Amino acid sequence: MSDFLDLCARRQSCRNFSGKPVEREKLTKCLEAARLAPSGCNSQPWSFVAVNDPKIVPQVAKCGQPMNINGFLDKAGAFIVVLEEHGVLMPALRKMLDSQIFAKGDLGAAVEHICLEATDLNLGTCIIGLYDRETIAKLLEIPQEKQFAGLIAVGYPASEDIRPKDRKPLDQIVRYV
Fold it and tell me: How open is the CA angle 165-152-154, to the nearest 5 degrees?
């Protein structure tokens, strides 16, 4: 693995995929990284549906293109659907807190682990926020009661160029005490 900050600098939202399919082995590595993500009380409130069937990938891509946006998804090689599962807190906390209190942060960590591992494997990712959950659920036979937490497009970037990151300087976002 490369230097971690270098890996973070190379990770970017890919909006220009090559159309090449993503190998199951590489998706499995990304999902293994997610499995290793930290979670409150080790509750691991997640599950994933990896989509790399060439007949289904284009259908999921269409679900991520409401209002004629995200046309780049047509060339994604795979998708990962992130589902929020019931968190199990340790008994002392369970009496005081909702079981899902840590879930959003935990899911964010798992998603970022996927994206960083994909970057390390020379894959691009884009976290999609707007998509047709109902159609994806029917297409992938995801039970209605499952809570969607995200959709990640995965694929080989058409270009190896890394865009400069436009981020606030540390002194604007950090205060030491």
Answer: 80
Structural tokens at position 97 = 């807190």
Helix, strand, coil percent values for the chain (each to nearest 5)? 40, 15, 45
Q: Which amino acid is present at 105?
A: G
Q: Provide the domain count of the chain.
A: 1
Mean pLDDT score across all residues of the chain: 93
Tokens in use for 87?
């968190």
Q: Are 50 and 118 in contact (CB under 8 A)?
A: no
At residue 87, the pLDDT reads 75
pLDDT at site 2: 56
> What crossing angle do the helices spanning 24-35 and 103-120 adopt, rounded to 10°?
140
Query: Could you list the residue range(s) of the whole structural domain that residue 124 is in?
Result: 18-157
Domain of 139, CATH number, reads 3.40.109.10
147, 14, 32, 86: CA torsion to nearest 10: -10
Establish if 116 belongs to a structural domain: yes
- Taking the whole predicted model, whether its pTM rises above 0.70 is answered as yes
Element (H or E) spanning 33, and its range?
helix 24-35
